[in-house]
Every structure is written in structure tokens, then in C-alpha cells.
User: What shape does this take?
Amino acid sequence: MSPQIIPNNWEDKVEMFTDELGLSPRNVNLLEKRGILTVKDLLKYTRDQLLAIPNFGDKSVDEVYKKLEEIGFCRDNDQQTEQQE
Assistant: This one.
């Protein structure tokens, strides 16, 4: 699971739809085509799994992580370090 730190009121946040995160319409469409409709669905995917989605590149993944962090989900230090290398 990519973002690891769980925010307060996480029960409500995991039920949010991806289009409620403020992602670009392109990225929402790409996620929805894969059946990723909620934050809960999104949290099941690793960075590599997201990158395996056709036309979903580093910038798209970075946008997803930024939006997840804005609602309180944070990546653990090991994953942040891996991504910076």
C-alpha cells in the first residue's frame, strides 16, 4: 500500500471518490477506466502498479500522492527515500 500514515477521520476519507480529490480530469479518467473509483481503491496500488497503467506516468503518480497527502495520507520514509533515488 503506498500512502501509509493514516489520518484522523480516515473512514470518511477512504470512501471519497477519486474525482473529489482534485485530480486532473485526465488522471481521474485513467483511474476510473481501471476501476479505481475511491481513495480506498487507490490505496491498494503501489507506485509501480500505478505506473503500469497506460499513459499514467511519474507526473500522474506524483499528483495522486500530493492529493492524498493533502487529505492526510502520507508515505512512510522508506517509500519516500526510494522515490527520491
